[in-house]
Amino acid sequence: MRTTFAFPVAALLVLSPMQPAGAQVRVTAMVGVTGSSSLVNDQLVQAIEAKPGLAPTFLLSASLPVGAKLRASLDLGYGSSTVELTEDGLVTENFGTLGTFTASAALVGKILSRLDWRLSLGLLQYMPSEDTGIFADGVPAAALFGAGLDWRQPLSDRWTGVAGIRYDFHLFTTPALEAAGFSGSQQVSRLGFALGAAWELP
Amino acid sequence: MRFRAALPLLTLVATALACSEATSPDRVPNYEWRLVVDADTLSFHWPVNDLPVRIWVEDSLDMPSRISEGIASWRAAYLYGEYDAVVVADSTTADMIVRVRTAPAKAIATVGRLHTLFAGCEGATDIDTVATRFQLQLPVRMYLAPRYDPAQVDLTECFRVTARHELGHSLGLFRHTSDTLDIMYGQPEAAGLSQRDINTAQIVAHWPANMIPTR
Fold first, then answer.
1. Which DSSP category does A198 fall into?
2. In chain B, pLDDT over 70 holds for what percent of residues?
3. Quick one: pLDDT at residue A19?
4. Contact A45 B23 (CB under 8 A)
């Protein structure tokens, strides 16, 4: 289920008919922070929650016009944070750092002249620093559904300042959690804010 | 237009994702682990700040390897990094001392000895609760010894099982079970940890401890 729907929809987005030659490629780089809901909720004597801390995040995207008001974009993201274990509401320990890599295809359109919407589908891969506990047997890639808004402030002919918010959603489970008797997957929502700049290629 | 075409698929994805719901396991079956001394019921787990537990192991009969294997199997029983241990070279700062010899006669009244008899070897772990009953005197002392001449009989598996069992005591599993499939069975035969062992170890690690390690 995690990746079943991602590929056909991502392919649909990417394979949309391209604009003829002369279309401008726009490259955007952004830096920000991403917060996440919990990866694991457990009831082990008391309520236990494993949750990534705020993650510094780097975003890179390249987009092309695919219609009068639409652009298709390929997005990459990377963030890293600690994983906090909370027991009965108190943070008891941090167990390692968790890198998060995302790759997605997005459609971007206009709401206002300087405000863009975006919808994306892709994959998210967690990269824990230690292969122990819930990460003992690895972490499979998860399908990622995302949405966001970008405010674009022109700085020059080719440069634009960008401020964006991103929301995405995926399901989290690991072989270790499944072996421990967890059923289903945890619904994980992430919300991020980023600032950066976009450059229109000649 | 293209976006409109994709919208039903996007809705389908969002709906399918939203239908998933994680459910945590109930850690059943498990067994009683607490040490009863007089009227006190004692529970212990290593404080997170004390990890990794430092274990000094007498370098005899390849016992450091057996202990390392035991550490690895118990570490794998936990989901949230509740236990970790390392074999250290300095016995003076160790939290546990593992000797390759038969346990000496108990010299202190506050020591509870958990003794294990295997076919070819034996083990014992001393739990010294100190006079207050609510402390665990460090280092915890563990004894592993052959019952036959190790030059004549291969005791590798025997020591592997016994080391794993005795390490279980050091994690707070202070009782022997009545199920032969458990590593904490009094005369353990199981090659690995049972689901009952794993469930109980996880519960112990989060149960409020009323014993504090002390030196």
1. E
2. 87
3. 46
4. no
Strand partners, A197: A29, A161
Integer distance in angstroms from the first to the last C-alpha of chain A? 41
Residue A144 has pLDDT above 60, yes or no: yes
pLDDT higher than 90, residue A90:
no
Q: Which residue of B has its CA nearest to A137?
A: B76
- A195: Cβ contacts below 8 Å, ≥ 6 apart: A30, A31, A32, A161, A162, A163, A164
Pair of tokens at residue A126: 């967690």
- How much is the average pLDDT of A50-61? 97
Cβ-based neighbours of A32, under 8 Å, separated by 6 or more:
A56, A57, A59, A164, A192, A193, A194, A195, A196
CA dihedral B184, B190, B195, B201 (to 10 degrees): 30
| 8 Å CB contact of A66 and B2 | yes
Q: Which residue in B2, B20, B25 is closest to A181 by CB distance?
A: B25
**Nearest-angstrom CA–CA distance, B95 and B141:** 9
Test mutation, B79, B86, B197, B207, chain A, max A CBs within 10 A: B79
Using H for helix, E for strand and C for coil, what is the string for chain B? CHHHHHHHHHHHHHHHHHCCCCECCCCCCCCCCCEEECCEEECCCCCHHHCCEEEEECCCCCHHHHHHHHHHHHHCCCCCCCCCEEEECCHHHCCEEEEECCCCCCCCCCEEEEEEECCCEEEEEEEECCCCCCEEECCEEEEEEECCCCCCCCCHHHHHHHHHHHHHHHCCCCCCECCCCCCCECCCCCCCCCHHHHHHHHHHHHCCCCCEEEC
Predicted-complex ipTM score? 0.83
8 Å CB contact of B81 and A45: no
Contact residues for B150 (Cβ-Cβ < 8 A; gap 6+): B61
Q: Which residues contact A73 (CB under 8 A, 6 or more apart)?
A: A61, A62, A63, A64, A105, A106, A107, A108, A118, A120
- Position of tokens 């990746």? A3
What are the domain boundaries of chain B?
4-214
Name which of B197, B213, B204 is nearest B74 in CA terms.
B197
CATH says B4-214 is which class? Answer: alpha beta
Q: Are A79 and A60 in contact (CB under 8 A)?
A: no
Q: Is B27 on the interface with A (CB under 8 A)?
A: yes
Question: Does the structure show a pLDDT above 60 at A22?
Answer: no
In 3-state terms, what secondary structure has residue A178? helix
